[in-house]
Structures are given as structure tokens and as C-alpha cells.
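W.,

You were right to be curious about this one. When I first looked at the sequence I had no strong expectations either way, so I just let the prediction run and decided to look at it fresh. Below is the sequence, 395 residues in total, followed by the output.
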Amino acid sequence: MQFELKAIGQDGRVEALDLEAFDRGGAVQQAESRGYTVIAVRQRAALLGAWRGGGRFPVVLFSQELLVLLQAGLPLVDSIETLAQKERRPGLRAALERLAGTLRQGRPFSAALEQLPHLFPPLYIATVRAAERTSDLGAALGRYVAYAIQLEAIRKRLVNASIYPALLIGVGALVSLFLMLYVVPRFSHIYEERAVQLPMFSKVLLGWGQVVEGHGALVAVALFGLIFLAVYGFRSVAIRARIGDLLWRVPALGERMKLYQLARFYRTIGMLLRGGMPLVAALDMGAELLHPSLRTRLVSARRAISEGKPVAASFDEHALTTPVALRMLAVGEQSGNMGEMMDRAAAFHDEEIARWVDWFTRLFEPLLMAAIGLVIGAIVILMYMPIFELAGSLQ
């Protein structure tokens, strides 16, 4: 979710910030971690990374092209100016020129990025800021690109797995609507004229047909109203959040959603640690990726880690790990290679999620087809049942 905040900066000026966070509290936490005092928070309808020129700002593509130019030996300012010159979209070109202008004033790259919070997510800015301390901007950009590509690959797997079931549901719904709104009313009219004796369920179904035939406009308005409510509910952040909370309570599905968030959290923390960011600061940065229930546990785990307790034990105590991740984190803590172990734990769980998605879709698709077939078959049978009974009586 994206939020617009009014906040007082360290210099005492009131500034407008655009931040991406899981909820309102996460946005406030991000602003306060940057030294701002939040005055007001308002949710925006814009997507993550939406830029004022329209569309979606290509952060990964920008990082890839910038990395190539830096590896070719161009200075940072010249590289960004080169990207601005080749860009044809006015809004994007203006944003890149603003970046280059800020850098020419002698300010750090991270400070230039912070002036465009509606373009660059906080995680990207934090990665660049950590790289500036170690002077390895190219390596940091490479890590972020790899991180974004891996997250996108997991997201595409989930989306691709949902396409076929969504098509089945859509086609089944259209066929059912055609039967209920067009075919059934005509059958009900025929049976009504001939005074045919109907079974109970057929009476109910054909009674619906008479309602549609007699009050078609009202039924159409009600149908469009339901569609509007469904679209509104899908677009409403509050309703989606409530649905998400309900899904979290489903035992099997909730565990997989938790595992997906933990894998993304591990990958994010691993990237920040390998970039040179301290662990506690990395945990604060990664907190916004978690569900509010997990974020509350992370606050307690972070407090324990700040008091000197082991990372693996703190995560395990507050249910922020799995048996496999617990062992990996313990090994990483002992060897001083926590960042790499976080990445390995994330990769392990990503593969586990992918296998579960494949298994679930293979099981769910035939069950869904069977359910749709039963619904459509029941409608057809109830329409034709009087004809079957009449044929049987003639014999």
C-alpha cells in the first residue's frame, strides 16, 4: 500500500512524503526511522513505484542500465545523465535529470534518491546508502537487481498458477449466468403454458426463471450492483486486508502465507546484511514487508537481539523461523556469515512454496472443474427433469 505523509523534517520544514508500507503504522515507522515527525497520514491509490509521469517506474531496469554504465567506467553523474538523454518519456527524463542535478550539487546518491520517494522504494534507498559506506555501489546494485528478479520470479509463479483456475471460474460463471438468465426463463414459460407437474427443485429453479422474465430490469440492476460491489471490494484496501486476515486463519493456507512472507523477509535482510547494513537496522527496514501479526513478533525479537541474545534463538522464540531456517541462522551466526545464510534459507523456502503451489494447482484444478460441471449439470438436469418424467410415463 502507498501512503502520503505530512511530516516535519530535521531542519524544521514541513515536507510531503510518499511511502510504501503494509499498513499505516508501517508508513509512520519508516518516516520516523528517517528522522521525520509525522503530522498526518493519508492512503494513496497509487501502486508501488508509480511515478508522476504515469505508469510504473522501472527501478530494476534503471539499476541494470546504471550498473552497465558504471562497469564501463563512467562516473555516476555521467551515467545518470546518459540514461536521461536516451529516455523518451518526459516524466522519466525529468526525474533522471533531477537526480543528476542533485548529484552535481555534491550530495550523496542516497540523498538524491530520497528526494524522489514516489519513485524509489525505501529498501532501494537503504541499499544505496549502505553501499556508500563501503564504496561498492556497483555490487549493491547487482545485489538489488538479483533480489528483485528472484522476488518477481516467485510472484510470477503464483500468478501463473492462478490463471487457469481463474479462467475456469470465469467461464463457469458465464455459462451459469447464460443458463439462469436466458435458458431457464424460456423453459419456465413453456412449462407454465402447459401446466406440467414439476418436481420440487425444478419448481424452485423455474420459479427463478419466472422472476427473471417478469422483472428482467430489476434483476439486471441487481446483477450489476453485485458486480460493482465485487469490484469495489477488490479495490478497497480495507476489505482486501480483512480478507487477507481471514485467509491467514485458514490452517494450511495461513501457514503457506506466513512461509512466503518469512522467505521474502529473509531474502531482504540477507541482501541488506551483505550490503554492510547493521542487523538491527536491517530488521527495522524489513519489518514493513511482514503482516502486522508477524511485525509485532519481530519487534519483540529485535528487542531481544538488541539485548545481546542470539539471532536464531530470538527468532525461534517469537515464531519467526522454521526448523530449517533455525539451523541455517544458527550456522550463519556462528560463522559470521548471516547474510548468506539468510539468502539460503529464503531460497530453500521459495522452492518449498513453488512445490506446494504446483501440488495445490494439480489438485485444485480437477476439483474445480468437477464442481463447475456439477453446478451446470444440476441446472440442466433440473430444467429437463419434467421432460424425462413425461417420457417415462409414456413408456
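Here's what jumped out at me. The radius of gyration is 28 Å. And, maybe more interesting for your project: The CA atoms of residues 217 and 223 lie 10 Å apart.

Coffee later to discuss?

I.
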